Amino acid sequence: MIQFSQLAKTFRRVRVLDGIDLDIGLGERVALIGSNGAGKTTLIRCLLGEYTHDGTVLIGGLDPRSNRTAVLGNIGFVPQLPPPLKMPVGQLIDFSASLCGTDPARIHGIARRLGLDVDAILTRQFVRLSGGMKQKLLIAIALGREAKLLIMDEPAANLDPEARKIFFDLLAERLEDATMIISSHRLDEVSALVNRVIEMDMGKIVLDDKVADDVALTARLACRIFLKRFEPAFAKALDGWNFTSRDADRVWEGEIAGPDRLRFLGIVSRYTALVGDLSLSERAA
Amino acid sequence: MKQLWLTAKLDIVESLRARWFQIYTLVFGGIVALLFVFGLTESRVLGFIGLSRLLVTYIQLTMAILPIFVLITTVRSVAGDREAGVFEYLLSLPVSLAAWFWGKIVGRYIVIFTPVFLAMLGATLWATIQDIEVPWGMFGYYTALLAVMAMCFLGIGMLISAIARSTDMAQGAAFMVWLALLLFLDLILLGVMIQGKVAPEVAITLALANPLQVFRTAALALFDPQLIVLGPSAFVILDLFGATGYKVFALVYPAVLGVVSATIGYVLFRRGDLP
């Protein structure tokens, strides 16, 4: 579906992309990882037809630069940093929906599923929304149409655990008919979402690996943690994951999304000394 | 076409919420209000009285303010949007580059021309209510002159925005362009000619190439058809164009300059990196 051939990009004599050759097929979920300056954003911008470059980029056999409308009509994009748009939310939705030929109601529906009360913020300027609200809205715009390619730059970074669960469900609904490229600095943030990992460094691909695809996006894990003693900071963190407590806040129970397990364990690891017992068991989706 | 209007509408809504637009509207509305308050319609200078006196003053003030306002706000918002990542997101949507670029121009044109025109229209309506005679011919020509002035400087602003890669650079370039045009207004050219450093033909060519000077001369021509205040250069202008010919030139040349500048800007925009 996507072909990069000898893709190179230079900014003021600095080679940011250095002869990238890559094929990505339909249905693949690719984690694009690498440190700052590795070339991830430049690669994405070339893919979106926003940068001129050497070499070729083809999406479905078409050059995104010279076939913008046809190619971008099939791409849903979520940027890492939400743009500082002064337009009202309602206008942004209508503008995007009109250009993409989709029904604004579909975008509203996805935003609502992500926990965003769209009707209450229709007249509010996009730039005035909180980070999480912006992220949810941009995800809703990207997913609220028939996109065959989803390009997402740290899409879940600003989402709360509940919204992340729903986000994973939304991605799961698109597994059959969409290719996904998820960019991140850290593999643990996206590892459970993908079946292929591409690592970039200094404008080159240094790792291209298939990964075990056993974690269903819709999986749920029942979790129970027994604390040796009560710790307010840990309690606050668990509260953020919608856990409930009993036995004088010593036993905490809740549910986490399957793809979130690594992120969750990362948080628990900060309080390892407090954990007397921990169990995670997968529930049927 | 749908994409173009969507982009234009987007730019209009963004501009209406921007502070520069509120100041811009206030400035031009305020000028007309002040001219009425200070009784300019009652004054008599060079035989001008009533609304024609007010319109002459208004167009002169507009020529001083509008170009720099349009240049700076256009380059600030376009280059600023690019720097802030607005282009990265909005240009990831399926909109053609032509619709995006020209849509922005159309939207911005409406936003910058409307307040200037409405202020003048408001003055005319007020004069009608007050039983002050309205010089409709002058009103029509000044409207066309304002429309062309906005087009000219918007085109130049879009060209600068397409070339400059940062807001600071764009603002600096816009200011330099305005300053250069200002430096070659009639008085400076006259001074240079008096010192005998430049041939009269060169000075007149420079004056005719400078859109600011073209507007000034055209505005003068309405109440001084023989361009007596310009001195000997009036002979060249009137010999070359004739009184009516010059009025037409003053509308056509800046419009062409604006459209050509915008077209070069578009070519550069679509050739280069977008965000």
What is the topological layout?
The complex is a heterodimer of chains A (285) and B (275).
Chain A: E1 2-11, E2 14-24, E3 29-33, H1 40-47, E4 54-59, H2 68-72, E5 75-78, H3 89-100, H4 104-113, H5 118-121, H6 131-143, E6 149-153, H7 161-172, E7 179-184, H8 187-190, E8 196-201, E9 204-210, E10 220-227, H9 232-240, E11 244-246, E12 251-257, H10 261-269, E13 275-283
Parallel strand pairs in A: 3-7, 3-8, 5-6, 6-7
Antiparallel strand pairs in A: 1-2, 1-4, 8-9, 10-12, 10-13, 11-12
Helix pairs in contact in A: 4-6
Chain B: H1 2-17, H2 19-37, H3 51-84, H4 86-90, H5 97-129, H6 136-163, H7 167-183, H8 186-194, H9 200-209, H10 211-223, H11 233-241, H12 243-271
Helix pairs in contact in B: 1-5, 2-3, 2-5, 3-5, 3-6, 3-7, 3-10, 5-6, 5-12, 6-7, 6-10, 6-12, 8-9, 10-12, 11-12
Describe the structure.
- The complex is a heterodimer of chains A (285) and B (275).
- Chain A is of the alpha/beta class and 285 residues long.
- Chain A has ten helices and 13 strands.
- Chain A has helices at 40-47, 68-72, 89-100, 104-113, 118-121, 131-143, 161-172, 187-190, 232-240, 261-269, and strands at 2-11, 14-24, 29-33, 54-59, 75-78, 149-153, 179-184, 196-201, 204-210, 220-227, 244-246, 251-257, 275-283.
- In chain A, the strands form three sheets. Chain A has a six-stranded mixed β-sheet with strand order 5-6-7-3-8-9, with helices on both faces. A four-stranded antiparallel β-sheet of chain A has the order 11-12-10-13.
- In chain A, a hairpin with a 2-residue loop joins strand 1 (2-11) and strand 2 (14-24).
- The longest helix of chain A is centred in the middle third of the chain and has 13 residues, at 131-143.
- Chain A is globular.
- The model of chain A has no long low-confidence stretch (mean pLDDT 88).
- With 275 residues, chain B is mainly α.
- Chain B has one domain.
- Chain B has twelve helices and no strands.
- In chain B, helix 5 packs antiparallel against helix 12 and helix 11 (233-241) packs across helix 12.
- The two termini of chain B are 23 Å apart.
- The mean pLDDT of chain B is 84.
